[in-house]
């Protein structure tokens, strides 16, 4: 089996070479069809509408599925999109070729200790040059503190609005423990966590849940910090084992132990929300199936509505100018009572990166929802009503279709036309190539391989690929015919030379350098403040 995996790079290059003529032909057919067949060109109609004001949007981290989707959404609704991203090894990234971009700016991939200052300075320069109205970061690996500082600098020294976390919110939102502590202080549910002063107290907690919950019992050091001396999962398989285990624990009032709920094994869900001035403008709940495939929950389901209410409550308790996009991960705890099966949602963590949930807002309707939600950040009359967004009918935020203003002023949900989101490359590799290799090594049966293959075909025909756009197919083609094959070819070349990883295409990460001090007041030199 190891020999098969060792052929991964040459097989990927060979497959791309074999598919090049067919994929290029299909690309040309796609382009010709778009050119010859009349399209419902909403963008052209909007630009001819006297009351419509096109905005200029800067998207950093554009070379991500989320970045591409937002670029297409703003372009389709009549706005101008500026993209910016790193290009390791100077190889053009796929997003550069998107027709949704008015212009692309390459960010310098420097590993200098002043990287963060240079990054913020570059953003401010781009914003001034392009006269940007709104900046949105779409990267899924950006350093949150740097993004906080970028928003602060951008809004202080330009007229651009930043859709990012505020610096004053960072301390209690950027780590899981800080987030859960903060959520608990808001009166919202969190995973159960308590200090116990006696063995009897442990038994009372376990008896109260009737074995429905698993707990981690561990010794605690000073300031409630856990130590590595003892870690035990309760309850055990039998009642006697549970009693014997607890009896051995040296728990006492002077040395309390920590008992916290275990969420492993519970079904996990993710959410994505766009929030403007504490108002939830757009929301989607979804879950990761496998291999980068995602399915959205029905927005009318009780589970999705519960998550929405949680997010709305969380957003409504922020400061009045809280604007950004974020995703909260949940797990679902089920138990049966006299009324049936009850589901309780428990928050696990928060991320301020752009989420795959953006991709569920597909089509022209989804583009309008995304554009309206983000551009509400520059509307002067967005107000909060119990966490549900209402957008004023102002010229600055008007996204028009057939000269009619959008009537739905509640939270925007995906229309439900997309059954799911999938990634073509990983899906092809895992469900087809890897499964076929496992058949050859007798790890799975031919029937199992056939089922995997049928799933791939279903995704190909009915699901939405995360990069492909019918009117903008070039980034998808460049990714799988040029960008990824070249990475595999360089990996082969570097492997022959004995280098473990091709440095030319090694993705740049802000964590490779020392970022700016977390307190912006400590920096007297601001090259962007000119």
From TrEMBL:
Transmembrane found in the keyword field: yes
Q: Domain of life, per the record?
A: Eukaryota
What Gene3D superfamilies does the database record attribute to this sequence? Answer: 3.40.50.20
Tell me which UniProt keywords the record has, alphabetically: Membrane, Transmembrane, Transmembrane helix
Regions that span the bilayer: 12-36
State the name under which the record lists this protein.
Catechol O-methyltransferase
* Source organism of this protein record: Exophiala dermatitidis
């Amino acid at each position: 089996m190891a020999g098969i995996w060792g052929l991964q790079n040459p097989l990927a290059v060979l497959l791309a070479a074999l598919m090049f003529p067919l994929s290029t032909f299909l690309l040309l057919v796609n382009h010709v069809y778009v050119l010859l067949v009349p399209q419902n060109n909403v963008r052209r109609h909007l630009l001819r509408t006297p009351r419509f004001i096109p905005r200029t949007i800067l998207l950093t981290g554009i070379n991500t599925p989320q970045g591409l989707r937002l670029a297409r959404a703003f372009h389709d609704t009549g706005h101008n999109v500026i993209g910016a991203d790193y290009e390791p090894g100077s190889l053009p990234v796929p997003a550069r070729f998107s027709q949704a971009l008015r212009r692309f700016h390459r960010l310098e991939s420097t590993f200098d200790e002043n990287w963060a200052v240079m990054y913020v300075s570059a953003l401010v320069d781009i914003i001034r040059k392009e006269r940007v109205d709104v900046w949105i970061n779409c990267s899924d690996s950006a350093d949150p503190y740097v993004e906080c500082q970028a928003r602060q600098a951008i809004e202080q020294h330009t007229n651009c609005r930043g859709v990012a976390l505020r610096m004053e919110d960072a301390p209690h939102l950027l780590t899981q423990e800080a987030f859960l502590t903060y959520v608990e202080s808001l009166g919202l549910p969190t995973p159960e966590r308590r200090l116990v002063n006696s063995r009897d107290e442990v038994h009372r907690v376990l008896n109260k849940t009737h074995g429905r919950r698993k707990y981690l019992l561990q010794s605690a050091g000073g300031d409630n910090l856990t130590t590595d001396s003892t870690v035990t999962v309760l309850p055990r398989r039998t009642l006697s084992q549970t009693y014997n285990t607890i009896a051995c624990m040296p728990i006492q009032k002077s040395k309390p132990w920590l008992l916290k709920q275990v969420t492993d094994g519970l079904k996990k869900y993710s959410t994505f929300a766009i929030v403007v001035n504490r108002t939830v403008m757009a929301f989607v709940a979804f879950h990761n199936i496998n291999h980068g495939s995602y399915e959205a929950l029905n927005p009318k389901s009780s589970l999705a509505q519960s998550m929405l209410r949680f997010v709305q409550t969380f957003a409504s308790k922020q400061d009045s100018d809280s604007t950004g996009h974020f995703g909260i991960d949940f797990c679902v705890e089920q138990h049966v009572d006299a009324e049936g099966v009850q589901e309780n949602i428990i928050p696990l963590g928060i991320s301020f990166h752009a989420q795959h949930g953006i991709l569920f807002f597909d089509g022209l309707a989804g583009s309008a929802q995304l554009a309206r939600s983000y551009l509400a950040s520059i509307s002067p009359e967005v107000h909060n009503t119990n966490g549900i967004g209402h957008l004023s009918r102002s010229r600055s935020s008007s996204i028009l279709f057939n000269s009619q203003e959008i009537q739905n002023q509640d939270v925007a949900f995906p229309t439900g036309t997309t059954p799911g989101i999938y990634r073509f490359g990983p899906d092809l590799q895992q469900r087809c190539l890897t499964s076929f290799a496992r058949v050859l090594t007798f790890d799975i049966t031919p029937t199992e391989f056939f089922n995997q293959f049928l799933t791939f075909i279903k995704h190909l025909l009915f699901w939405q690929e995360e990069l492909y756009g019918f009117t903008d197919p070039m980034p998808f083609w460049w990714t799988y015919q040029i960008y990824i094959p070249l990475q595999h070819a360089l990996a082969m070349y570097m492997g022959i030379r004995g280098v473990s990883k091709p440095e030319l295409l090694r993705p740049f990460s802000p964590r490779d350098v020392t970022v700016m001090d977390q307190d912006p007041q400590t920096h007297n030199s601001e090259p962007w403040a000119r």
